[in-house]
Design a protein that fits this description.
The chain is mainly β. It has 4 helices and 44 strands. The strands form 8 sheets. Strands 1, 4, 5, 6, 7, 8, 9, 10, 11, 12 and 13 form an 11-stranded antiparallel sheet that branches.
Amino acid sequence: MGRIINLILLVMLVNGYCSAQSDFVLPMKIKPVVSGSFAEIRSNHFHSGLDLTTNGKTGYRIYASDIGYVSRIKVSSGGYGKAIYIDHPSGHTTVYAHLERYSNKIDSIVKLRQYEKKSFGIELFFKKGELTVDRGEVVGYSGNSGSSGGPHLHYEIRDKATQKPTDPMLFRSDIPDDVKPQIQGLKIYPLSKDASVKGVDKEKYYPTVHYDGQFHPKGWKELRVHGEIGIGVQVLDYLSESWRKCGVKTIELFANDSLVYASDVEEFSFAETRYLNAHIDYAEKKRTGKVIQRSYILPNNRLSIYKVKERYSIKVLPNQRYKMKYIIKDVTGNTSILEFILVGDQPYRKELKTYDNKRLKYNQHYSIDTLGMKISIPSNSLYEDAELLVHRNDSITELLSPVYTIGDDHIPMHKLMKVELPVPDSLLAWKEKLCVIGLTASNKTYYRGGKFEEGFVKMSTRNFGRIAIGIDTIPPKIRLRKAPASNNYTSRKSIEVLISDDFSGIDHFECLINGNWALFEYDGKRSLLSGAFKDIDTNKGENELVVKVIDAKGNSSEYKTKFIR
């Protein structure tokens, strides 16, 4: 009898937990269509929430998922744009990002603080009880602010204590998904000195086809390999009624029916998300755009998503056979299978390579002084040992300095390395305007930061590649956008100003109306400053607008104009 009571209690607890998990109000009262999933692989990070489409429009009401209080508000021209964070009694924080505007209750507080700080970009924190919201209360309106690529709502659910994001689909049963993950290919990697794939010591990609209810390597039933082998898989997912590419939740790999690799992206920490670059084949993504998820773990990969402790690779000897099987699931349990056979090949004989360049151990610190430049690479900056190419080219005479090549830009870095380039005496007169520039394969230049210190231009970077010394002396450009005749704005709701900088980028701006600071919102995607007349003080009749813009190297521009209200 006691066991039955305990079982009933356990079921009640589980059911209570499940109902709490799915009891959040949808943030919008339109049909939920997912355009970006949780843990979808993005540049340098996992996607931390759901992107919900807004039919290409802005201005939909955004509702609080449950009772709680606003714990944080952040406004910026990039990133999440206008975002709001709400803490709930359930122990979760919900996040609503890329908003067009906040509700009147919240917006009045934000505008007040922006004027106090004289800054469009702002971050505010609130304690429990200071700014409460009801379940289903309107807290904002959907938009396209920040680094958004189009109108949508970015919606997150985090653990309040750890701020780890969790898949919002685990809290919902009303977003349909009956589409299985699509396995596009697999890749085999020779890892040991004697390893080979199909008779050569090079990695090989195999596209897949679907038949008999599962996926198979196209044209191959057996894959010949030798030595220590790593395997990776290219997979994406779709949700019902959406053509947008999404991520999967679990990947399992079996060898002769034994589980040898397993990953599960149900939650992660923002502190670890950059290790994504070790989880994927970074070089393949750079070269071809294919996203291959490794099923073996690089030495300096510290993601917490792996469920098998061994850093799996498989050693295949001549005539051995391994029946390999991937089982891949999305968050709603839709499952796809990929099967193939590894057959042991004869040993591959190859000449040992000798490296003229420095071989870096991933877990060691390096201070390098060579070719006139200095490089400092902290330990654990790399995910595995790698060859460091260092080269100097003095033949590109139209540049201000030699071109220095540091490493291979197909190799990802986790930590910032410091680079110092020597400044010739002929450039010292311009030292405040000096910077580091990057060069593409066609020698097109772009800004990479850096500043002059103690005879060098110094920068910190996570990217290898070709660099040189550059200079930026050109100030930003400023002009009115679609100004009315005679600058008469009496029938307009806002005044808009276009600002741009050709090289180092906008660092700071300030707008004054009749000598007083005025709130102008900055949309970096459109290079647009917008001042809504409801948010700024003007005189009836003639007014003066002054716009000051400074770029990253201190070049400044000022624009003055009269307008009528």
